[in-house]
Design brief:
Elements: H1 10-15, H2 42-46, E1 53-59, H3 62-73, H4 80-94, E2 102-105, H5 110-116, H6 120-127, E3 144-146, H7 158-165, E4 169-171, E5 181-189, H8 193-204, E6 209-217
Parallel strand pairs: 1-6, 2-5, 5-6
Antiparallel strand pairs: 3-4
Helix pairs in contact: 4-6
Length: 219
């Protein structure tokens, strides 16, 4: 939490909700009553996701939601360093003993990138590599590409999000992912439709495993 003291008041810091175990062994969602060990939630048992494991550092709630909005929509890009370091701590905690060969930020379509001026997922991935600690996997922002512009996912239910994002991603250099263990990173996980579509594209290109790490997730 010390990483955010320059950007948060004490009350907002205390309102952050870390997503610590027990969580679903696959999607990382907390369940009522908790889950033990690698137990899967009902959704993952009924419909296994395209990714192998997903984790988030915090719940997308309150003060963190506000600061993510400032970072993503109001151009407060200086926040990428402390937010990226929070992702780094989550990576070191959840991926201890779980190898990762390459980190892939969720890409923006070129039209959205021109409009926003930066890819928040790529900035976060860069931010988590600037601190002390053990070596982290390399980040590649050019392997996974967004082939078409999609409507905003905001306001859509899971079915609508899946339809909206279907076929939106492709792999530019399949030889970079074939047989490798990949980590897809993004700012917020809502229904998981976007990262699942990324995982499908990567596995279709021969990836051995695809995990997901986000700064936050919707409870």
């Amino acid at each position: 939490m010390a990483l955010l003291r320059a950007h948060f008041c004490t009350g907002c810091l205390e309102a952050l909700i870390p997503l610590e175990p027990p969580v679903c062994g696959c999607c990382g969602r907390r369940a009522a009553g908790g889950l033990a060990g690698d137990t899967l939630c009902g959704r993952c048992r009924e419909r296994p996701p395209a990714f192998d494991m997903a984790r988030a550092a915090f719940a997308y709630h309150g003060s963190l939601r506000e600061v993510v909005h400032c970072f993503k929509y109001r151009g407060k890009t200086q926040l990428f360093r402390p937010l990226g370091r929070l992702m780094q701590t989550a990576f070191l905690r959840f991926w201890q003993g779980r190898p990762v060969d390459l980190v892939l930020p969720v890409p923006l379509h070129r039209s959205r990138l021109r409009e926003r001026g930066f890819n928040q997922a790529l900035l976060l991935a860069r931010g988590w590599r600037q601190g002390d600690g053990p070596p982290l996997p390399p980040v590649d922002g050019g392997v996974l590409v967004r082939m078409r512009a999609t409507a905003s996912q905001a306001g859509l239910d899971r079915k609508g999000r899946c339809a909206n994002i279907a076929g939106a991603f492709a792999v530019r250099s399949p030889e970079r992912v074939e047989g490798r263990r990949l980590l897809v990173v993004d700012d917020v996980l809502t229904t998981g439709a976007t990262v699942e579509e990324c995982a499908r594209a990567l596995k279709a290109s021969g990836a051995a495993a695809v995990d997901v790490l986000t700064l936050a997730r919707v409870p």
